[in-house]
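Q: A reviewer asked whether we had any structural model of the full assembly, not just the individual parts. We don't, so I'm hoping you can provide one. Inputs are below.
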Amino acid sequence: MSETICAIATPPGRGGIGIVRISGPACRNVAQTLLGNVPPPRSATHSDFCTTEGEILDSGIALYFPSPASYTGEDVLELQGHGSPVALDRIVGYLLEQDVRLANPGEFTERAFRNDKLDLAQAEAVADLIASGSAEAARAATRSLSGEFSRRVRELDQGVLMLRIFIESAIDFAEEEIDFLGDQEQQKQLAEMQALVESLIERSSAGLTMQLGLDVAIAGDPNVGKSSLLNQLLGEDRAIVTATAGTTRDTLHGELSIDGLPVRLTDTAGLRESDDPIEVMGMERAEAALEQADCVLWVVDDEDVNAAVPEAYQTKALTVSNKCDLTGREPGAVNDKVFRTCALTGAGLDELREGLKGVAGFRSGIDAFAGRPRHIASLKRTHNALVTAANELSALQGELVAENLRVAHECLGEIVGVTTSDDLLGEIFATFCIGK
Amino acid sequence: MKYPTAFDVIVIGGGHAGVEAALASARVGASTLLLTQAIETIGQMSCNPAIGGIGKSHLVREIDALGGTMAIAADQAGIHFRTLNNSKGPAVRATRAQADRVLYRNAIRQVVERQPNLTIYQDMMVDLTLKSDRIVSVSTRLGMEIEGGAVVLTTGTFLGGRIFVGSEQHTGGRAGDPASLELSEKLRTLPLAAGRLKTGTPPRIDGSSVDFTKLEEQPGDEPRPVMSFLSSSDVHPRQISCHITHTNPQTHEVIRRGLDRSPMFSGDIEGVGPRYCPSIEDKIVRFAERDQHQIFVEPEGLQTTELYPNGISTSLSFDIQYEAVRTIRGFENAHITRPGYAIEYDFFDPRGLMPSLETKSIENLFFAGQINGTTGYEEAAAQGLVAGLNAARKVAGQTAWVPQRHEAYIGVLIDDLTTMGANEPYRMFTSRAEYRLRLRQDNADLRLTPVGRELGLVTEDRFKTFVARRDRLDKCNSVLAGTTVYLNSDLANKLSKETGEAISRDVSLLDFAKRPGVRAEHLTASGVFTDKDEAYLVQALIDVKYQGYLRRQDQAIERSKEQMGIKLPIDMEFEGIDGLSNELREKLEKVRPSTLGKAASIPGMTPAALSLLSVHAKRHSGLRKTA
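A: Here is a predicted structure for the entire assembly that you could use as a starting point for your response.
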């Protein structure tokens, strides 16, 4: 790997900080010219970033990671400057004159791969880290990147392997003098593994929601305060609010972040009988938005005692009982699906935000992983197989316990790589004295 | 000197692979020559006198379903039969027969001698002639050149065979028989990847010097199972018992003293032995914490007192063998009739074979049995059948036939060998078969006899017997599917009483039969079936109980077929694929899978890596088209 590559490592656009990452053998030379010296390894050094002509391109923190203890396994230099796109471009432009070329998409990861720095699950987490739109998701991605997700799944994979060693030997080496596991011990191990998968699924799902965010639609009868709610949640006057029913003709969008959880809000036209063709179109769009939403905030008038969420949205709706200033009732969470608010003053909205976090599986105390939908699907099938294995064990169907564990192992293999029957047999021969 | 006639197919070797190869080739109509060093040893069991066992009897039943001869011979020679895993599910149930060596050999020889299209000739092959990478003839030690369209090599342990007892060693193919040395040298000049493997046998013991009162007796099972779909237990000869004894700390002490002269530990043996069939010295070293090891004492036959103490195969010096044997309970005064020995022999990396078992580098040359890195009579016979069949088909200009992994253990065996190769002698286990629930002893004929008939392997008689059996099964299945158990009907009451299962609404008999507590005898007792149906009903119920699992496997089979359909270019560059780990990349470089399906079976493979491969395969083929 003789070429040295560089890339802007922060997302495009103006940010508080802009990072240029350089990897390859030319890092030391680049440091010498740009910083005037090679900074001590792995410690933050403040420096001007200067051309040989003495022009200051930017100033900031330089970090130097000598090979092999770096992200890519090569020499890596990181320049953390001010986030201005112009400054970043000037740094990169200068680097390109110094025997450094622009990295291809994913090339840092590829080099990390080649130098055995990452496994597949970790590499996928890197992709998530780059794509993740929120700080929470980035934290989850970091946890997975450090190998925790991989480690947990591997642990589980190992657990299934150990149990299979016993169960498969009991079938293939029935006549050997082996101390096979009793059914009770097998049940115990199956239950432990089930619990482990459940917690992995929960943590991965939470990570997934954090990356993808939540699509939330605001809906309800006309003139219950939907647009006021949107404006209050967004903290800006996005929607025109009047006392006239039917003011909102089209769907309105806005994005906000609740403690790092990306939420895309859609305000919909109030649903009512109307002859106005524009309003009818708006209501059609509203219905489509409700279909697609992960969560519906169904807004009702706190005075309206007959208000109810339509059947179709009940499972994914939170009821927002608005205008509680008029009834004089206390704003806040009535239960985890019903909230009383005053959209004009913002009363009760903190509780509603917490409610939305709850919908996202954003419960406190969960350390989320950067879950990928594919991983979660594999884990769910693992879980099913383990549950069925336990049932077959109760029915004394040894070969079906074995079949379900094989399937569970296969599903985990989709994440950490397959264990072949030959690997399994190898473990059996290493564990037991087999053979007459 | 030219041999007066030329043959379509020449099979070298008269062991279990050679016999099935020669028979299959002759059955499908090819003029076939069976060339063997010694006609007397056709069908010889060189190792322990038993056929079958878990995973292995599955192979035997499949060979039988395809018209092979191993199962019938085992029934005619079997002096002790057992059903293994009887307490476990039907998919993993297996049959083992202890065979009288002489009866077995005789049974095989009779079939071979009576087979039309098959000629037997005694001589040793020493050379072969190629014409532009195609084999055209073999030459013998007596200077005979025999022309053949195709050649099937089944050399067993004879190719470059070397026998070890302690620090003594000599060339040999089996105790008392010479090795094939010239042929070994000749084959090593060909573009085939040669290696060495090792196996061993225990010392044989004179039964008249053994105190059987000190051994645990193990009688055979009654009712006696049979191996062949065509047999009944009426053909079995007189039945006798096996016995069990154990080694003890004293035995282990003696063996440890002899380790310094063991060729296993001195480095004299370079070949790799099987981990599942270790020598007793290996067991004692690797599992030092065990203070005893089981010995299964197998009778060699009805007319001999010789015994085969299975579990103490060894290549230790004779003095150590002698002393160690006499520490064993019941063997205190045992006389060793033949010392145990290790044998090392040539094999060729089976990844050099096509699934038809034809070598990739030399056209019309087929390999079967231990030459491909396998061990076991059953594994050898299964390959022999496939190689013999495909050799004949090749000569006749027909495409090869090989069963798939979901169709037969034979398919698993061949796919494993040609994809993964053999790091140690390969033996079949049920855990190797991912479709284990459908690859059962009971349905081997349903899976394979129809195709065997089409291929010409199955005689009309066998097929008639099969069709009659299949019809009875079909009848059971249609009664199960077509009968409704009405709530509170007589039938419902009888079934509830028999099974203890409550019937709370109308239910089809098929759905009722899925309940775990329902067994065949319940259905006959309630009058839906007659006693004559019971054997068939038992089998029908297996599929009923496994139905959910079998359906799910159907999906997996479809997926695997799709993956098998995606070809990976032979010159694919794994180096350039971003996202593959180094480890996987190295494995791919080594295996060079021909299809995505083969790549899927590489250890450590993930779906993500597979999708990368399929994308790159597509890109690769696109690039080549435009280039």
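A: Points you may want to mention in the reply: Chain A touches chain B through 49 residues (CB under 8 Å). Chain A has a mean pLDDT of 81.
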